[in-house]
Amino acid sequence: MRDLLRALGDRLRKLRERRGISQEDFADRCGLHRTAIGLLERGQRVPRLDTLLIMGRELGVQLTEIVHGIELSPGIVRPSGSRLKASSISRQSMSYSSPSEVKKRTGHCGASLAITPPDGGGTSA
Questions:
Q1: Which of 41, 73, 81, 85 could form a disulfide with 9 if both were Cys (CB 3.0 to 4.6 A apart)?
Q2: pLDDT band at 82 (very low <50, low <70, confident <90, very high)
Q3: For the packed helices 34-41 and 23-30, what is the interaxial angle rounded to 10 degrees?
Q4: Which ranges constitute the DSSP H helices of 1-117?
C-alpha cells in the first residue's frame, strides 16, 4: 500500500509542478491545508475520492489521468481477508458538486459525489 500511495503522491506532485503551482496555492484552490498536500504528495495519507476529484479539477485533469498506471501489488488483501476488487464507473454516471455548491444547497461544508447506477437510482459518497 505504501508503494501505491507514494506513486500516487509522485503523480500529484508532478502534475502540480508541471502547472507551476506551489503547494500553498494548490492547497488554497483545493480547500486543504498546505501540510495535507505535502502528506498526500509524500504518500503519507490516503486521499478520499472527493479530494482526488477536487485536485484533478484544480489541475485540469480527469481522475483517470491521476491514477492511470498506478496499481496494487499482487496478493494485497483487505484486513477482512477478502481480495480487493476493481470496479469502473463511467464518467456519464457521475456528478460532482464543489464544497461551495454543497454549502449553498445544504448549508453544510463538504463536497459531494453522486453515482448513478444503471437502474437510474442515485447514491452519494
A1: 41
A2: very low
A3: 110
A4: 2-18, 23-30, 34-41, 49-59, 63-67, 99-106
| Domain boundaries, given as residue ranges, for the chain | 2-67, 91-124
Cell, residue 3: 508503494
Nearest CA among 59, 85, 86, 73 for reference residue 4:
73
CA distance 29 to 98: 11
Set of cell numbers at residue 45: 495519507
Residue found under cell 503547494 = 23
* pLDDT tier for residue 71 given thresholds of 50, 70 and 90: confident
Amino acid sitting at position 124: S
